[in-house]
Task: structure prediction
Amino acid sequence: MRVLVWAENCESIYPDGVHGALASTLSEDLSEVRVATATLEDPGCGLDDSALEQTDVLVWWAHVRNEEVPDDVAQRVHDRVLRGMGLIVLHSGGEAKVFRRLMGTSCTWGWREPGERELIWTVCPSHPIAQGVGDVIELSEHQMYGEYFDIPRPDDIIFISSSPGGGEVFRSGCTFTRGNGRIFYFSAGHETLPIFHHPQIRKVMANAVSWAYPVNGFVDARRFRRMDPV
Result:
């Protein structure tokens, strides 16, 4: 399995960046996996045709620089997903150009700065991404995301988060299918907190990458009509 972890560079608690932390945990938690990393600062954002052709699952983490990703890069990733590449979108990556193009909506939500306890409830325990995760993930502190989350109807809602500060809830773990590609959005992952060291979060990530792997292989992009954003 060939996994590419992409992230924008920003200040974080992780010495090797969020992409480095994710790559390390996935390498440790998955067998028979080859993990590479790329960032916004790399030539072509590290997402040129050659890199994408060698990627089975792309993990996309973002914070505040979504608009800096060039349109042609977002379109390349979009088209590759339609052909069968798996896509895991994390945290503020829900507002990334490629995710909005694939969803056809604004993908906006309500939010507050970190400082609140969050409970991530497993509401679809039979789904492969939820296997071995448990009934609830408790984060002692996280950034609050809350409804309304402007996304189309998911294939499955696997996790719902609740925040006690204002009583908000959020569809924090959702799956979608676009073309021949599987997509999982997961809201966890604020960069100033050690979220990706949490054992249950690590389990979600490993499960999600395994689930998104293109078991039916890639298909000829000419089979799909170009899908522009709504």
Summary: The first strand starts at residue 2 and ends at 7. Residues 199-212 form the longest helix (14 residues). Residues 219-230 have pLDDT under 50 and may be disordered.
